[in-house]
Design goal:
By secondary structure, the chain is α+β, with helices and mostly antiparallel strands. The chain is built from 17 helices and 13 strands. Helix 1 crosses helix 16 and helix 7 (175-198) crosses helix 16 (429-436).
Length: 479
């Protein structure tokens, strides 16, 4: 009789008894966990129905447009505020760009889910753009974080949707097209969040590579425009800016040339204060960046007017030259408290006071972008907080108010997807995806809100224009 080999019974290996570690998620359990982000997101629909986001009612204590602009000008360089007013008075979309604080006041009285994320705070359609990564490759993402805070994710989406309606109206699009752009932005946000919720965590973190963005959002009508903007952005460098804005000095260096009122030289004391502030700035960078900047010498400092909402804040450009005379320009830009901040505690978003507003801006930017400027940091100049970054870092942007009518909804889908990616770095995409859902209920609500708030912004713009014409508020146009 043939011997039967002895059968070994192998007991299943038990999991090591590793304790839960603070800062990490609980270990995986069999089946869906009770109280999971998905369940929480679905339950939130009962407390804050998605259709509720369609509602906009102006608060009873709302300031008129002129008072709101005047209050937002407090603390800015007084002689520059007429330029800011002039830029805001150009059209209703420009008005919205400068009125982030007024919109935050209006949103604070509306429905809020209570789900927080690191938000841009000023996610209008012109605050997305191209810039260069460390190797000079172009990236497209949100690119303005002056107002960034931890707050309601839906505020960013409502501001984006509203801005698309206004940009479309300025571009001459009909009302159906403008509304469709807002609807498509919300739809792209919702679908992208659902996609991110299904991916492994690390893949979701780095998802939607820029070369896939157009196809992901079905934005093919934008291809020609994006290619033109990209070509221009590749040449938009510090060296090019320095070549146009500086002149040779007798000692073999270079110095800025006045181009008033946008660019002006500053006195020796002011220049020395800005230059000295770059020493502490170096300490805010990663250690491997410091040897790079040690190869540059500071040659000159100038004051430069920037943006629409930012006009009147203190902003400098600093010219650095390496051993070959090649230029690197840094922007040293004042960081004021976020205009959203006064409205957040009443909604349950309470955070510790900011130690440094420049640090807030830099931290918020790094939390939202997939790739950030390698020279991004902060400093203090004569007691005021500033952020520091590369100037003209292959930056390029699409003017949404100048797009062809057939491109506006494509641009809405692209920016909606980018916004979802940015929010998913700090808010759990599973929760937001579950709340947003599969159907278009949220999309429709966001589009309805966007149209209503765009009407409000047009009325505000008309009040500002009338005030400029009557002399109630000073404005300088065409600058």
């Amino acid at each position: 009789m043939k011997a039967v080999p002895e059968q070994r019974v192998v007991a299943p290996r038990s999991r090591q008894r590793i304790p839960e570690v603070a800062g990490f998620a609980p270990r995986l359990a069999a089946g869906p966990a009770k109280g999971s982000p998905r369940e929480a997101g679905k339950a939130l629909r009962t407390r804050v129905p998605r259709a509720a986001h369609a509602r906009f009612e102006a608060p009873a204590d709302r300031l008129d447009a002129v008072r709101a602009v005047e209050e937002s000008n407090v603390g800015r360089v007084a002689e520059l505020t007429p330029i800011r007013v002039g830029r805001m008075a150009a059209n209703p979309f420009a008005f919205l760009r400068g009125a982030a604080g007024l919109m935050a006041h209006d949103l604070s009285g509306g429905p809020v889910t209570g789900v927080g994320a690191q938000i841009c705070g000023d996610a209008h359609a012109a605050n997305f753009g191209l810039y260069g990564d460390a190797r000079g490759r172009l990236v497209i993402d949100l690119n303005d974080f002056d107002e960034t805070v931890f707050g309601p994710w839906e505020w960013d989406l409502k501001r984006l949707a509203t801005s698309l309606v206004l940009a479309g109206r300025v571009a001459g699009a009909d009302e159906d097209t403008c509304r469709a752009a807002a609807l498509d932005a919300a739809g792209a946000y919702r679908r992208t969040m659902r996609l991110l919720a299904k991916l492994p965590a690390l893949d979701a973190w780095n998802a939607i590579a820029d070369e896939e963005l157009v196809s992901h959002t079905d934005a093919r009508d934008l291809l020609g425009t994006l290619e033109r903007v990209s070509e221009k952005a590749r040449n938009n460098t510090s060296a090019r800016f320095a070549a146009k804005s500086t002149e040779a000095t007798p000692d073999g260096g270079r110095a800025f040339v006045d181009a008033l009122p946008v660019l002006r030289r500053v006195g020796d004391g002011e220049a020395a204060a800005v230059a000295a502030a770059l020493g502490p700035y170096l300490e805010t960078l990663q250690g491997d960046r410091q040897p790079l900047l040690a190869r540059y010498a500071i040659h000159d400092v100038a004051f430069r007017v920037v943006g629409t909402g930012s006009v009147g804040t203190r902003s400098y450009v600093v010219l650095l030259l390496d051993h070959r005379g090649e230029a690197l320009v840094l922007q040293v830009k004042e960081a004021r408290p976020s205009v959203l901040l006064p409205y957040l505690p009443g909604l349950g978003f309470v955070s510790a006071p900011e130690e440094h507003e420049g640090r807030r801006v830099v931290a918020g930017q790094k939390r939202m972008q997939v790739v950030s400027d390698i020279l991004l940091g902060w400093t203090t100049v004569e007691g005021r907080p500033f952020q520091v970054r590369q100037f003209r870092n292959r930056k390029g942007s699409v003017d949404p108010a100048a797009l062809a009518v057939e491109q506006i909804d494509d641009y809405g889908r692209m920016t909606g997807a980018l916004l979802a990616r940015a929010h998913a770095h700090s808010a759990d995409p599973r929760l937001l995806a579950a709340y947003c859902g599969k159907n278009e209920e949220l999309d429709e609500a966001m589009a309805a809100f966007a149209v209503a708030y765009a009407d409000r912004s047009e009325a505000d713009h008309a009040v500002l224009v009338a005030a400029v014409r009557s002399g109630r508020i000073a404005a300088e146009s065409g600058v």
